[in-house]
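Predict structure. Chain length: 144.
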Amino acid sequence: MKKTNFKKGDLIAVLGGTIEKNRKKADAAVIGSVLVNGLNDVLVEVVGVTTSIVYIVPKELCQKLSLEPSLLKTSKASMPEIGDLVVSYEKKPYSNDPPKEISGVLYKVSYKLGLPDTCVLMCGTEMIEVKASTVMLLQKENAR
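Prediction complete.
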């Protein structure tokens, strides 16, 4: 058994998944912070929107997360420009509707109060308007 030493306050990902008759997958994670480091387990606090819950978790399922704090200030999402290949991915909160994923060439950006508000994507012969906050750069125009 891997004996990782965690300390109080460490941010960790607790990995999980699903085991079925013919399939096994570890594709889920919950983020929490360590309250107590035990011999084989850790006491983890998971903070939700309205409450926090404490769990005893095997260390084998935990991965410590870390980030250089200065990256919080310097890292920025890439800003696509007109002509770039982009994808818009929108999942409506509190809805069972499937997410709407549209890829195309960024044709137009409309601004409101100095910020990008909506974008028009050229998808084949169709022009589709999406929220600017849902648009992510896939490829620069000059890289194709």
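Summary: Residues 71-74 form the longest helix (4 residues).
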